[in-house]
Amino acid sequence: MKKVLLLSLTTLLGACSAMTSTPQATLDGEVFYLQRIALPPTATLEVSLQDVSLADAPAVTLAKQSGQIKGQVPLPFHLTYDPAEVKPGHTYAVSARIEQDGKLLFVTTERNTVDLDAKYLRPLQIRVDQVR
């Protein structure tokens, strides 16, 4: 009886390990701007983690968070990506944009490079500038 129980537990554990999900990594931070103005209540925030290695090709998005903004700046974000998609020698950056009803209000104007190979990623501070 003990052998049957042990065999069934071994089979169950093997099945569970086969169902493990792909490993996930996270990148956290805040989006802010310097102007002393409040955001409209219907504004939306989009933050993206992209592979920007190739200058003559579109950036490849690894993770994206978008949705209606709750509150005012600084605006927190949490990106989850698959570390298997990170390629050695490639350059990765985070960009952000704030829109209202499809109209761009704020956008990143500088590259925010992030080292995804680092053992510890500190929270990012992403500045966006007002679009005039």
- The run of helices and strands is HEEEEEEEEE
The helix tally amounts to 1
Percent helix, as a range, is: 10-25%
Low-confidence stretches: 2-15
CATH topology: Immunoglobulin-like
By helix and strand content, what is the structural category?
mainly beta
DSSP summary, beta strand count: 9
Largest sheet: 6 strands, antiparallel
Q: Over all CA atoms, what is the radius of gyration? A: 21 Å
In angstroms, what separates the terminal alpha carbons?
76 Å
- Overall geometry: globular
CATH class: Mainly Beta
Q: Which whole number gives the mean pLDDT?
A: 87
As a percent range, the share of strand residues is 35-45%
Number of domains: 1
At CATH level 2, the architecture is: Sandwich
What does this structure look like?
It holds the Pfam family YscW. Residues 1-20 form the signal peptide. It comes from Pseudomonas taetrolens. This is Lipoprotein. Keywords: Lipoprotein, Signal. This protein is mostly beta strands. It has a single domain, classed as Immunoglobulin-like (Sandwich). It is 13% helix and 41% strand. It has one helix and nine strands, in the order αβββββββββ. It has one helix spanning 2-18, and strands at 25-32, 44-51, 60-68, 75-81, 92-100, 103-107, 113-114, 124-127, 129-130. Strands 2, 3, 5, 6, 7 and 9 form a six-stranded antiparallel sheet that branches. A three-stranded mixed sheet has the order 4-1-8, with no helix packed on it. It is globular.
